[in-house]
Amino acid sequence: MKIKSANFVISNTDVAKCPNELLPEYAFIGRSNVGKSSLINMLTERRSLAKISGRPGKTQLINHFKINGNWFLVDLPGYGYARVSKKSKKTFQKYITNYFEQREQLLCSFVLVDIRHEPQPIDMEFMEWMGENEIPFSIIFTKADKLKPAIVKKNVDAYLQELVNGAWEEAPSHFVTSSSKDIGREEVLEFIDSINDGFFKEESG
Fold first, then answer.
1. What is the pLDDT of residues 50-81, one digit of tens each?
2. Does residue 45 sit within a domain?
3. Residue 103: which domain range?
């Protein structure tokens, strides 16, 4: 897939105010310091589409970007570490939950995981919640350039095995990426493109 256009549409905290166009939607979410904004900018080849902050937890809104005029990329607030009050955190975690439970246009979510770390309880709990609520998702491992390829493979295998040993019959699809080295970009976009193809064929049929 070639990204010909990527435009910011709206930020809000109310799912009812999200775009009402019946276009495919893909949400990106992960712990607050996982490199989500850098990944979004890498995928869209737009240096500052998603705002990169030195302070983790900066994103606290549902951010919609229209891509190529026919699908939405959604940048969601990170879960876990964020320098906000407990009240604020509870508020935006509630509208994240509302988004996942109510957004019919959502075809797939991408849960971002830092490949450098062992499986974190907060990531595992979030993916378990996604599974229990039958919300389709894939895993994107970030920051692969920080490790040697053999260690990346070892860590990915360990993470997927942890999922299979838990509540999963088989691990979700996954991608290994590096925003600074453009690793994984084509694979993620081809995956989105394949889902879009199925969606538009069904709509036209």
1. 876 544 444 578 999 999 999 999 999 877 64
2. yes
3. 6-204
